[in-house]
Automatic annotation (TrEMBL):
<feature type="binding site">
    <location>
        <position position="220"/>
    </location>
    <ligand>
        <name>Na(+)</name>
    </ligand>
</feature>
<feature type="binding site">
    <location>
        <position position="466"/>
    </location>
    <ligand>
        <name>Na(+)</name>
    </ligand>
</feature>
<dbReference type="GO" id="GO:0015293">
    <property type="term" value="F:symporter activity"/>
</dbReference>
<feature type="transmembrane region" description="Helical">
    <location>
        <begin position="492"/>
        <end position="516"/>
    </location>
</feature>
<keyword id="KW-0472">Membrane</keyword>
<dbReference type="GO" id="GO:0016020">
    <property type="term" value="C:membrane"/>
</dbReference>
<feature type="transmembrane region" description="Helical">
    <location>
        <begin position="707"/>
        <end position="727"/>
    </location>
</feature>
<feature type="transmembrane region" description="Helical">
    <location>
        <begin position="410"/>
        <end position="436"/>
    </location>
</feature>
<feature type="binding site">
    <location>
        <position position="227"/>
    </location>
    <ligand>
        <name>Na(+)</name>
    </ligand>
</feature>
<keyword id="KW-0915">Sodium</keyword>
<keyword id="KW-0813">Transport</keyword>
<feature type="binding site">
    <location>
        <position position="567"/>
    </location>
    <ligand>
        <name>Na(+)</name>
    </ligand>
</feature>
<dbReference type="InterPro" id="IPR000175">
    <property type="entry name" value="Na/ntran_symport"/>
</dbReference>
<feature type="region of interest" description="Disordered">
    <location>
        <begin position="1"/>
        <end position="190"/>
    </location>
</feature>
<keyword id="KW-1133">Transmembrane helix</keyword>
<feature type="compositionally biased region" description="Low complexity">
    <location>
        <begin position="122"/>
        <end position="134"/>
    </location>
</feature>
<feature type="transmembrane region" description="Helical">
    <location>
        <begin position="456"/>
        <end position="480"/>
    </location>
</feature>
Amino acid sequence: MHVACPSHCPMGERGAQRGQVTCPRSRRRRWPRPPDLRGFPSRTPLLLRSGPSNPQLCVRGRAHPPAVGPSARLSGCLRGRSRAPLPRLGRCAGRGRASAAPGPRPAPRAPRPQPPDGSACARAPPAGAREPPGQSGRPAGGAVSGSLARSRLRGEAKPGSPGSPPSKMKKLQGAPQRKPITPDLLMTPSDQGDVDLDVDFAADRGNWTGKLDFLLSCIGYCVGLGNVWRFPYRAYTNGGGAFLVPYFLMLAICGIPLFFLELSLGQFSSLGPLAVWKISPLFKGAGAAMLLIVGLVAIYYNMIIAYVLFYLFASLTSNLPWEHCGNWWNTDLCLEHRGSKGGNGALPLNLTSTVSPSEEYWSRYVLHIQGSQGIGSPGEIRWNLCLCLLLAWVIVFLCILKGVKSSGKVVYFTATFPYLILLMLLVRGVTLPGAWKGIQFYLTPQFHHLLSSKVWIEAALQIFYSLGVGFGGLLTFASYNTFHQNIYRDTFIVTLGNAVTSILAGFAIFSVLGYMSQELGVPVDQVAKAGPGLAFVVYPQAMTMLPLSPFWSFLFFFMLLTLGLDSQFAFLETIVTAVTDEFPYYLRPKKAVFSGLICVAMYLMGLVLTTDGGMYWLVLLDDYSASFGLMVVVITTCLAVTRVYGIQRFCRDIHMMLGFKPGLYFRACWLFLSPATLLALLVYSIVKYQPSEYGSYRFPAWAELLGILMGLLSCLMIPAGMLVAVLREEGSLWEVSLPRPCLPGPPALGPPARTENICPSTLPKPHGLFQPVA
């Protein structure tokens, strides 16, 4: 049954002229599609600045203004039907329901003549002028159609027609007069001209200069030091080529879905790890836990970069200092291994009874670990390491000085140049004698390892830590995207590129280790190591066996430097963005100064790592800062988004950004598979807990307790955040736990007291009439 359109409906007059007497919003009688807004493509928001006399409006589709009462406010993204009855004037019928205030339809009137000067639109009437009710085709209350907003924005005159919007603002009897909406109130890239599809929701916050900046930053963040010194070792100890089966399966179940979830959350909100939890203040503690974890990791991660700088400068010589014995730091156990081709050459050397020059250079000269009795006696500060650490922080600060504007340009070099060096090392490695022996040891599949649960856990851990999920870096990078950036495509590019890079690094590493094992006359498993031992002991020793060894050593450590800097950029940008989003009024204008203060504070806290016993503290931080606490944070984030915020609402938000909803694969992973996998990892980490150790040194009980408390602190911040939210928010615990499906409005939309919330996820249909939200 068709419902008559009320007299105040803005389409009633036009409907009468076209012979259509039913309400255009009725489901059974659809109104013909209005003219498209040329300046505003579909789904492109048109934001109006909120003020004391102008509403805040978000236009995301076709223009069809509703009847707005004098006390009604426009708030959010108005695309669906009305949420509440409008005062005194009623509303149009929706979904077949009768109108609240039907009335006679006004008689058609002739179009208003255009001004003789050809201006874009007629000027507003004088302050005292009034029009009789019902004589204006424009709805009451100051709402403006998209076509009128477009014409005023572009400075064009719209030809007069029966369907053209009027050029005069109507003033209701007894209602406060609203100012006309002029181009200076429109939040657009410029005062005139078309609006770009990639609209900036928070212009003062900043965006990437280009889409490639974001993609390369994500690649540099994920492809780090772990791809070089952890993946190859885990691969050959867990079945060789057979390890790739659980690796790619865990990538599909856990890696890609969580990566896409974090990018979607950051891009949709345009907020950092702390402010993004306005969707549910009860879980803001998860954002604080992210900052604690990434802060601890950034402190010791930059110390590793300082070690790389130390070796980089040491490679600028004609002879590498770790090539021969006889230096003041060497002991009687030092022996230059030349295998069966050197020395007496009778039998393979027993590597357990001797020490290589590269190992003594690392432990006795670089670390000077003999000057410390353990973690409780750090010893003196190594000033050469202290200066290298200072240089590392200066480099990081200069690269993030202007936020993503500066770091987004640096990654064009730091994210691409490592691939060139890696290819050079690979080509050089496969041409060495014995290289095939190492590659065969690396890739020979041992499928019986797949029956062990340890292999599957190791594959999941490698995926989890390699992609950097849960640290907040992905969320931070995505928050600087434009609203319609195709992060779905970027997710597959980064995750698959990270996996391919890890496999490629394994070829480059094990080809050289195969050559080294042949030269020493020992099996490959006796020369292969993981972690810093591979980067600072084994591989430097292999470089001494090559012609032009300083050149290859410099390339290798320069590759490690670029890999480490990309990850460090993300860690620092996460901290700075999270805090500035919480206090934008005070910190955003001084973001560069605040970044410098963060770097200085972390440098001072990292000085303990430059002492004689600093390596013990680095191992303790590495083992506990991002262990089970990080898994708890990711599980909490996944459950909060899918269960509390709502999987359907989250998928509608993604549909608004990308134009499609995630399929069954992503929903199943977010709801069940990914949390279950992370829970299994957490249980495995607790059950298989082993005390930390460095070589033959065992950490004392108080150090183990300190590490456990360090990991528990990040977990305890989640319930602490819930307690703070309950005490600060009004209402019961159940009311505080309810989701807030509103995207916080950007600060640029107006003063904080007048800024409303933009709620695109609460809208039922992608197209429809603009409706006021009471």
